[in-house]
Amino acid sequence: MTIWAIRLCVYLTWRNWGPHEDHRYAAIRKNNEPHFWLTSIYIIFGLQAALAWIISMPLFGAIESRTMLKAWDYLGAIVVIIGLYWETKADWQLSRFKSQPENHGRVLDTGLWHYSRHPNYFGEFCVWWGFYIIALAGGAWWSIVSPLLMTLLLYKVSGVALLEKTITERRPEYAHYIKRTNAFFPWAPKE
Fold this sequence. Notes:
This protein has helices at residues 2-16, 23-31, 36-55, 57-64, 71-98, 119-137, 145-157, 160-164, 167-170, 174-180. It is an all-alpha fold. The protein has a domain at 56-180. Helix 4 runs parallel beside helix 6, helix 5 runs antiparallel to helix 6 (119-137) and helix 6 (119-137) packs antiparallel against helix 7 (145-157).
């Protein structure tokens, strides 16, 4: 968990360093004026605190478990490691692509992005399902709400769905990318 948190913190700090603001947050700010400073307390910070509590349920279950390590624990750890690797590599590939001026307005469709339009979100999905597998090994079956909620958020709410709502306006070739590449789960593209 600590490795996941440090990786995310470092990456988001590095990515967002500077004067620009993520267009998704700018839209939230614009849609909640006047007094965004007040409404942000519950629509951003309060909501994120509640989500963090729910999403961290497998961690509580795993920590409270008094059982010996089982094969499921190792399987969960492997899924977490694969997820961390996958999202780190996807973020690195996208950052490298965006850093090259000739790619402005273009679509990254190589590397992991050749098999999924959002491989970074798929990696995050793996991390949370891996944590759940570890919790399940300790008897915390009830924490399944966490990976289900995370999957819903990544795929239908704040991840894929929110990003793809306006991306074709900014990158016209993205429409073709949508037709040939899976949104979330990696798979061979349709040619």
